[in-house]
Amino acid sequence: LVQGWIPECFDGLSKEEWSLVHIDVDIYQQTLSSLEFFAPRLAIGGLVLVDDYGFRKCMGAREAVDEFAAKYSWNVLELPSGQALCSPTSVERI
Q: What is the pairing mode between strands 84-88 and 42-50?
């Protein structure tokens, strides 16, 4: 669990590899910055869960996920919970 302001809270995490990343920041820039930071550090078969993807009050989260997924060819599965489950379409890192 990492708390703090994005992207400053990522200091010291750049050498880690992640199997599951849960992003719950609600707004566009912080969601996009989180995806851009964690994607190249995601383990093969790893997943990113983004909260608030399906909620109209948090449209920035959806916009950031959709933009990122289109740019890097990631899969996005919208869950009934309003979250999105995201994963790369290949094992190549971005």
A: antiparallel
What is residue 23's three-state secondary structure?
A: strand
Q: Compute how many other C-beta atoms are within 10 angstroms of the C-beta atom of residue 43.
A: 11
**Residue 83 has which token pair?**
């979250």
Phi and psi at residue 52, in whole multiples of 5°? 70, 10
Q: What angle do CA 51, 54, 55 make, to 5 degrees?
A: 90
pLDDT tens-place string over residues 2-28: 778 888 888 888 888 999 999 998 899
pTM of the full structure: 0.89
pLDDT tens figures, 31-58: 999 999 999 999 999 999 999 999 988 8
Q: Specify the length of the chain in residues.
A: 94
